[in-house]
Amino acid sequence: MMLDITIEIEPAFQSLITADRLTAIATDVLAEADIAAGEMSIVVTTDDAVRALNRDYRGGDAPTDVLSFAARDGDEAFILPDAPP
């Protein structure tokens, strides 16, 4: 399996960043973490949309900078690698 990165950018933000740029950043971050296979979705959206997701899935009725969701549940949780020295 290779990396599968999906990017969705709301029209209001398309002048600020491109899907190609976000894909390149995500690829670099995953390479630095030594992750060569998997799936990642990145959505750039409004505070209202993030607030609704946060409320519906996380129980927090407020916008936030980042929401993350595990691709799978259980014992195979992702563990961040150690920071470089």
Explain this structure to me?
The protein has 85 residues and is an alpha+beta fold. Helix content is 31%, strand content 16%. It is built from 2 helices and 2 strands. It has helices at 19-32, 47-58, and strands at residues 3-9, 38-44. Strands 1-2 form a two-stranded parallel sheet. Strand 1, helix 1 and strand 2 form a beta-alpha-beta unit. The chain is globular and about 35 Å long. The mean pLDDT is 85.
- DSSP helix fraction: 25-40%
Q: Kindly provide the radius of gyration, computed on alpha-carbon positions and rounded to a whole number of angstroms.
A: 15 Å
* Class computed from helices, strands and strand pairing: alpha+beta
Mean pLDDT: 85
Poorly predicted runs are none
Number of discrete helical segments = 2
Principal-axis shape equals globular
Largest sheet: 2 strands, parallel
Oligomeric form of this entry? single chain
User: SSE string, helix = H, strand = E?
Assistant: EHEH
Strand order of the largest sheet: 1-2
The total count of strands amounts to 2
Termini separation (Å)?
30 Å
Q: DSSP strand (E) fraction?
A: 15-25%
Gist of the model:
With 85 residues, this protein is of the alpha+beta class.
Labels describing this entry:
2 strands; alpha+beta; 85 residues; 2 helices; two-stranded parallel ribbon; globular
Layout of helices and strands, plus pairs?
Layout: E1 3-9, H1 19-32, E2 38-44, H2 47-58
Parallel strand pairs: 1-2
